[in-house]
Amino acid sequence: MIDIEQGGFILLDKPYGWTSFQAVKKVQYILKNHFHTKRIKIGHAGTLDPLATGLLILCVGKYTKQIEMFQAKEKEYTGTFFLGATTPSFDREKPVDRVYDTEHISGQKILDTAQSFLGEQEQIPPVFSAVKIGGKRAYDFAREQKEVLIKPRTITISSFEITDIEMPRVGFRIVCSKGTYIRSLARDFGLALGSGAYLDSLCRTRIGEYSLEDALQLEDIAEEYSFKL
């Protein structure tokens, strides 16, 4: 249980369909109710998209000063790419806008292409992302159907393992640096295969030394703080 005076952090398994902000606000409400206070400072260390699940580190009280330290840690993800189609958001949030041929893609080509992404590289974040451009979020421009120039970021992919191939879906496990967008990696992976791809599912399984196996469900947190969801 969190020491409200000293602060602390909570490992949360973010539910599917929730934004990271919604998860933070729900836990904040639970803590406010338990400690009978109107003010509890809380933030998360690294956004997960609504359609993604997995580890979200919530920093409470004085630990909010350590958010950047948590964010800088290495990340691990598992999930699936859908080959042969693309969407504007690079995931299932937006409908398919184009389909591509996949007959030329062999299992060996998929394995070899994954290995070609290892190491330091430049990556362009998705248009539908929280990247700031002139003080405004990129997704705000995208929703207004305005074109924007998003600068590439330097990222590092230290492991890219293909765990399953059942076309058109390809399972993966990726270990990467801060700032890596797996949705952008899906886009780039499809292009490298001479086709298209989008992110079909995603779960963050590790942040640094902190594992999803040790994370709590919202129901667990509510029970620990005597709150009825």
Give the helices and strands as they follow along the chain. Answer: EHEEHEEEHEEEHEEHEEH
Oligomer: single chain
Shape: elongated
Top CATH class of the largest domain: Alpha Beta
Distance between the termini: 18 Å
Strand content: 25-35%
Description:
- The structure is a single chain.
- With 229 residues, this protein is of the alpha+beta class.
- The protein folds into two domains: 8-72 and 209-224, Pseudouridine synthase (2-Layer Sandwich); 75-207, Pseudouridine synthase, CATH 3.30.2350.
- The protein is 24% helix and 33% strand.
- The chain has six helices and 13 strands.
- The chain has helices at 20-35, 67-71, 107-115, 138-143, 182-192, 218-224, and strands at residues 8-14, 42-44, 53-60, 75-83, 85-86, 98-99, 119-123, 132-133, 136-137, 153-166, 169-176, 197-207, 210-211.
- Strands 1, 2, 3, 4, 7, 10, 11, 12 and 13 form a nine-stranded mixed sheet that branches. A two-stranded antiparallel sheet has the order 5-6.
- A hairpin with an 8-residue loop joins strand 2 and strand 3.
- The longest helix is centred in the first third of the chain and has 16 residues, at 20-35.
- The mean pLDDT is 92.
List the helices and strands and how they pair.
Blueprint: E1 8-14, H1 20-35, E2 42-44, E3 53-60, H2 67-71, E4 75-83, E5 85-86, E6 98-99, H3 107-115, E7 119-123, E8 132-133, E9 136-137, H4 138-143, E10 153-166, E11 169-176, H5 182-192, E12 197-207, E13 210-211, H6 218-224
Parallel strand pairs: 3-12
Antiparallel strand pairs: 1-3, 2-3, 4-11, 4-12, 5-6, 7-10, 8-9, 10-11, 12-13
